[in-house]
Amino acid sequence: MRILFQSLIEMGRTPAYFSGMQERAEKIARPGVQVDFVGMPEGLYGGSVPSEVLKYPYMANMAEQFILDNALRAEAEGYDVFAIGSVQDPALEQARALVDIPVVGYGESAMHIACSLSSKFAVLVFQEGFDQMMDLRIRRLGLSERALPTALIEADFNLVGSGLTHAEPLLEPFMRAARCAIQQGAEAIIPGQLYLSEAIVRAGVTRIDDAPIVDGLSANLKMAEIMADLKALGIGVTRRGYQHARPPAEMIAHARRIQKRDEHIRRPPTF
């Protein structure tokens, strides 16, 4: 089984993030599963960090086009699953309507697993605007009754990045926000953006006050394996209804030719 894992971060920005995920993926995935990671094009975010850019709907939509490029690439290159490693699940529904291989998203996977681990969960994020974004995502998934309002932690992209190798300054605000959510009724915690999840998991934090921490990478890869297994059994995504309708191949080819999109899917993954 081969999984192409899409990150919203450029690979050159934080090499330790990707190398660490590759090491962890080799332990998480079952034997015989190959996981390749691909990021956003270098320089996509200019002088800003991704979380400062992606909180704007227009900018997020532009990034989604690169995700869809890689979904098509994954199918064309024979991958069994395309995994989107971002908690807000950007372009998830569009990708499922575009390709016939399974497509999984970190947010959806983690929230469904949290529902199996608890009766109520909370998502913790950094960067103002992501809390509203996640509340909208939770509502769209029909999970509002199972989730507390998304909480912001007192951290930024740089603090989370440094937390990948030196977690102590990040753990204090994360623990404080998690315990606040637990006091309000949360029984499981999802550490928001995968960047944050990786920092928390690499620090060895798996539970807080007996509430499990949902490891985003593990949730997404295990869901990818499940969906590939189901596909092999003949159980694939529906093609009924507006949301999952796949355009004819010639329509896709024409649209991509007009927009010159194919030039964006020829880069091999770095990891």
Structural class: alpha/beta
What is the number of helices? 11
What is Rg? 18 Å
Distance between the termini: 16 Å
Number of domains: 2
What integer is the average pLDDT?
Answer: 94
What does this protein look like?
Helix content is 47%, strand content 14%. It is an alpha/beta fold and 271 residues long. It has 2 domains: 2-105 and 218-265, Rossmann fold, CATH 3.40.50.1860; 108-216, 3-Layer(aba) Sandwich (Rossmann fold). Strands 2-1-3-4 form a 4-stranded parallel β-sheet, with helices on both faces. Strands 6-5-7 form a 3-stranded parallel β-sheet, with helices on both faces. α1 crosses α10 (216-232). The chain is globular and about 55 Å long.
Essential attributes:
alpha/beta, 271 residues, 9 strands, four-stranded parallel sheet, 47% helix, 14% strand, Rossmann fold, three-stranded parallel sheet, 2 domains
How would the blueprint of this fold be written?
Elements: E1 2-10, H1 15-28, E2 34-40, H2 50-53, H3 57-76, E3 81-84, H4 92-98, E4 103-105, H5 106-117, E5 121-125, H6 130-140, E6 151-152, H7 157-163, H8 168-183, E7 188-190, H9 194-202, E8 207-208, E9 211-212, H10 216-232, H11 249-259
Parallel strand pairs: 1-2, 1-3, 3-4, 5-6, 5-7
Antiparallel strand pairs: 8-9
Question: Could you provide a short overview of the structure?
Answer:
The strands form three sheets. This protein has a four-stranded parallel beta sheet, with helices on both faces. α1 packs across α10. The mean pLDDT is 94.
